[in-house]
Specification:
ATP-binding, single chain, 17 helices, tyrosine-tRNA ligase activity, EC 6.1.1.1, nucleotide-binding, alpha/beta, six-stranded mixed sheet, Rossmann fold, Structural Genomics Hypothetical 15.5 Kd Protein In mrcA-pckA Intergenic Region, Chain A, 414 residues
């Protein structure tokens, strides 16, 4: 394909090498880009006219914290932002008060205005670790949703049929399963779609579970006489186990506010196979750079070198380059049996105290029985010496106690 027809001007915009590169950046790691030919036309028109495209990501601030799995979509936004396009970080303060049923068997509970305000502030602060804040447009959908009023809401509802709404998987399944569906739940995808009308969005990003809502935006833009947006969905990131999606409930996540040493060590714990998927979805390296690195590993270079580079990149993004370097050194020290600099200090009473009880009280084991199991497995050290005697009692003094490779505490026993 050598040229693109502009839907807005009727002129022909050439597909240059820069446009082809922008298309490759758009497709990197994505699940779906719908429709690709329309997005190519938009990119070509933007290149020819110098007018940046408007790229929207809407997030309902339903929780105050995010993990790196949530940043997959933000990374894509940053890649497109670096190409010169306008990124709109849309906070769904209005839609959060409706509650989104996407992918659920029941509606998500609506939030209070106070909860939304607190969560939104935290969300944007964390998202700014990925996005360039100076080039990010922050909007709240209450700006145009509140003024709609009852009349506007009814007029909006007339733009979509109940039959098409019931094509949505969760509505379809709940209806046929005899579960209730409240009328207000139909309003959520309508309001999310209306956001695209209000913002004149060219592209909307979201997770694979948001596809119905994203397509709603295309439909409503056409209804209101606008050029329909394209939609780009990103896959869900597998967690540390490489099997389940990253989730706090699965305890296979890395929080973006975690300490640098913990973040670095957790990235190093992933499998060599998963590492390359994380590179595609989380790294800011170009695909050519990643391919060259993979070729080196295939040719015999230690894959740990590539994993260390990824761990340092991710840690530096959410902390700093200096802290990433320090985390690497901390990991090296631990692997050699050394003691990290930032260990917790704990004061306990009751000397002489049994080692299993000490582990429990110091927070290094959940219970004395777990402490005994750790000792049986050779995973407990006191002042660098492996503890093999479960009957060991420690006298008053200060000890560096280690469990496994990552848990340390400086225990002062009185």
């Amino acid at each position: 394909m050598n040229q693109s027809d502009s839907a807005q001007t009727g002129l022909v915009s050439p597909v240059t090498d820069r446009v082809q590169n922008a298309m490759a950046v758009s497709l990197r790691g994505c699940d779906e880009l719908i429709p690709q030919e329309d997005w190519l036309k938009k990119l070509a028109r933007s290149e020819a006219t110098g007018v940046p495209l408007r790229i929207k990501l809407g997030l309902d601030p339903t929780a105050p914290d995010i993990h790196i799995g949530h940043t997959v979509v933000l990374n894509k936004m940053r890649q497109l932002q670096d190409l010169g396009h306008t990124v709109i970080f849309l906070i769904g303060d209005f839609t959060s008060m409706i509650g989104d049923p996407s992918g659920r068997n029941s509606t998500r509970p609506p939030l209070t205005a106070e909860q939304i305000k607190v969560n939104a502030e935290t969300y944007y602060k964390q998202a700014s670790l990925v996005l360039d804040p100076s080039k990010t447009e922050i909007r709240y959908n209450s700006e145009w949703s509140d003024p709609l009023g009852a009349r506007g809401m009814i007029q909006l509802a007339s733009r979509y049929t109940v039959a098409r709404m019931m094509e949505r998987n969760d509505f379809h399944d709940r209806f046929h399963g005899g579960q209730s569906i409240a009328v207000h739940e139909f309003l959520y995808p309508l309001m999310q779609g209306y956001d695209s009308v209000a913002l004149k969005s060219d592209l909307e990003l979201g997770g694979t579970d948001q596809k119905f809502n994203l397509l709603m935006g295309r439909h409503l833009q056409a209804e209101y006489g606008q050029e329909p947006q394209c939609i780009l969905t990103m896959p869900l990131l597998e967690g540390l186990d490489g099997v389940e999606k990253m989730s706090k409930s699965k305890n296979n996540y890395i929080g973006i506010s975690e300490a640098p040493n913990s973040m670095f060590a957790k990235v190093l714990s992933i499998s060599d196979v998963l590492m390359w998927r994380w590179y595609t979805l989380l790294s800011f390296k170009t695909e050519a750079e990643i391919a060259a690195l993979k070729a080196e590993v295939d040719a015999g270079r230690n894959p740990k070198d590539a994993k260390v580079a990824l761990a340092k990149e991710i840690t530096a993004r959410f902390h700093s380059a200096a802290e990433a370097d320090a985390a690497e050194q901390d990991f090296i020290n631990r692997s050699k049996g050394g003691v990290p600099d930032d260990i917790a200090e704990v004061s306990l009473a009751g000397a002489p105290l049994g080692i299993a009880q000490l582990l429990k009280q110091a927070g290094l084991a959940a219970s004395t029985s777990e402490g005994n199991r750790l000792i049986d497995g050779g995973g407990v050290r006191v002042d660098s010496s492996v503890v093999s005697d479960k009957g060991l009692k420690l006298e008053a003094g200060t000890y560096v106690v280690q469990v496994g490779k990552r848990k340390f505490a400086k225990v002062t026993l009185g």
